[in-house]
């Protein structure tokens, strides 16, 4: 039986924490059907005087928003599992905060920013991180460490830097550095993850986490990207055929099958690696799965893709007929897959910078070139609207211009 929720006047309720516990875990009901989790700290009390002149004890409390959310009324097994995992993480954080309070000198004061090694905090954040974008979080740390090493002005902070030493000027230089290392969405995504970790540190240790990311005019420092411009390289159908016919010593057949499958379906790496035979409806020749990137956050996270002979050949069959839970493409780490992919592309004689995500872009551009309409492409890619799909139509127009420009000039009298 579910525990009854005793709502307070501000539409919040206690989840965990008995009398005397510090902090306590609460949830606040939001208008979008979710509940925002937060911690409430008891920070003692001070003597105060009322308007009538009476002296009373004013209780001091402070809250910490965890950035974690529950479904208020979970309707599916997936939503119920997400609630279970989120709640377990929130309770773990509450316990850790409680231990910090017990270990602090004055019982309720948290560590000061000047005492924090931000690099060490970043590493510990990664160790406890459980979301799908952990690779981008790791890249953000490595890029920041590279930035400190490569920038003469900030080289002194390589081994130790506190949050207070991360300034507005440093962040402006950091954005320039990121854009010199990664283009477009890559640089923006890395900077967004860096800000996310810095905010987490600020929330935990109670300091202003927005200051380094606000310029002198009060505007937020960010990396702006034209979302409708496609920057990744595209593999043409001829190049895909060239890649499919290329083999090399000690190649990994699962990497080979998985990448070719992505070129013919538009799947992301995080989705293709998790596919099992339960996702395949062999009778109706359909692939059904939920996108890891939007699962639990979008009603359009489910994708259905028709399968043809090429797809089915790449999928194969489970090692045992009843082993439907078997992973279709047993893949090593992303880094290992990318290393193998680069070697494969080079052996095929393709002089393009190809990452795994290029398969998704190549799929979209190639089917648009072959006459698919933009709504169909958006559906196959699992986009909730046409905004993110429109960049592929621009890429197709560019390819058409290149094709026309490749025609030899005519001498016309």
Commentary on this structure:
- It is a single chain.
- This protein is an alpha+beta fold and 413 residues long.
- Helix content is 41%, strand content 14%.
- The protein has 13 helices and 7 strands.
- The strands form 2 sheets. It has a 4-stranded antiparallel β-sheet with strand order 1-2-3-4.
- A hairpin with a 7-residue loop joins strand 1 (12-16) and strand 2 (24-29).
- The longest helix has 27 residues, at 77-103.
- The termini are far apart.
- Residues 230-406 form the Tyr recombinase domain.
- Keywords: DNA recombination.
Query: What gap, in angstroms, lies between the N and C termini?
Result: 89 Å
* CATH architecture annotation of the largest domain: Orthogonal Bundle
The total count of strands amounts to 7
Please bin the fraction of helical residues. Answer: 40-55%
CATH superfamily of the largest domain: Intergrase catalytic core
Please state the structural category.
Answer: alpha+beta
User: How much is the radius of gyration in Å?
Assistant: 26 Å
Classified by CATH, the class of the largest domain is Mainly Alpha
Q: What percent of residues are in strands?
A: 5-15%
What series of H and E elements makes up the topology?
EEEEHHHHHHHHEEEHHHHH
Oligomer: single chain
Number of domains: 3
User: How do the strands of the widest beta sheet line up side by side?
Assistant: 1-2-3-4
Largest sheet: 4 strands, antiparallel
- If helices are DSSP runs of H or I spanning 4 or more residues, what is the number of helices? 13
Strand and helix layout:
Layout: E1 12-16, E2 24-29, E3 34-49, E4 55-71, H1 77-103, H2 118-127, H3 134-150, H4 168-181, H5 185-205, H6 237-244, H7 253-263, H8 269-272, E5 280-281, E6 286-290, E7 302-306, H9 309-315, H10 334-347, H11 358-369, H12 374-381, H13 390-405
Antiparallel strand pairs: 1-2, 2-3, 3-4, 5-6, 6-7
Helix pairs in contact: 2-3, 3-5, 4-5, 7-11, 11-13
């Amino acid at each position: 039986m579910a525990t009854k929720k005793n709502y307070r006047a501000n539409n919040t309720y206690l989840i965990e924490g008995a009398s005397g516990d510090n902090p306590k875990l609460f949830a606040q009901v939001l208008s979008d059907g979710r509940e925002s989790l937060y911690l409430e700290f008891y920070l003692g009390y001070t003597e105060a005087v009322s308007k009538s002149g009476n002296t009373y004890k004013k209780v001091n409390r402070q809250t910490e928003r965890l950035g974690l959310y529950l479904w208020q009324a979970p309707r599916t097994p997936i939503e119920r599992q997400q609630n279970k995992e989120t709640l377990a993480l929130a309770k773990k954080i509450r316990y850790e905060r409680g231990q910090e309070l017990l270990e602090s000198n004055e019982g309720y004061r948290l560590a000061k920013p000047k005492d924090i090694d931000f690099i060490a905090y970043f590493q510990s954040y990664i160790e406890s991180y459980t979301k799908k974008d952990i690779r981008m979080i790791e890249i953000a740390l490595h890029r920041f460490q590279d930035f400190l090493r490569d920038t003469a002005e900030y080289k002194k902070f390589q081994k130790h830097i506190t949050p207070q030493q991360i300034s507005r000027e440093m962040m402006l230089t950091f954005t320039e550095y990121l854009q010199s290392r990664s283009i477009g969405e890559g640089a923006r995504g890395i900077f967004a993850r860096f800000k996310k970790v810095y905010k987490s540190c600020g929330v935990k240790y109670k300091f202003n986490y927005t200051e380094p990311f606000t310029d002198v005019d009060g505007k937020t420092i960010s990396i702006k990207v034209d979302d409708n411009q496609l920057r990744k390289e595209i593999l043409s159908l001829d190049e895909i055929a060239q890649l499919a016919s290329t083999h090399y010593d000690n190649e990994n057949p699962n990497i080979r099958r998985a990448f070719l499958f992505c070129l013919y379906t538009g799947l992301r790496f995080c989705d293709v690696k998790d596919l099992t035979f339960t996702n395949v409806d062999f009778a109706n020749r359909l692939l059904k799965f939920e996108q890891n990137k939007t699962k639990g956050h979008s009603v359009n996270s489910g994708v259905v893709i028709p399968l043809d002979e090429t797809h089915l050949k790449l999928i194969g069959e489970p090692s045992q007929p009843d082993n439907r839970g078997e992973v279709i493409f047993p893949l090593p780490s992303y880094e290992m897959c990318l290393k193998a992919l680069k070697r494969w592309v080079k052996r095929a004689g393709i002089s393009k910078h190809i990452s795994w995500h290029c398969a998704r872009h190549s799929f979209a551009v190639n089917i648009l070139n072959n006459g698919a309409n933009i709504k169909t492409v958006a559906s196959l890619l699992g986009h909730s609207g046409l905004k993110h799909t429109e960049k592929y139509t621009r890429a197709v127009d560019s390819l058409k211009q290149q094709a026309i420009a490749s025609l030899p000039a005519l001498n016309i009298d």
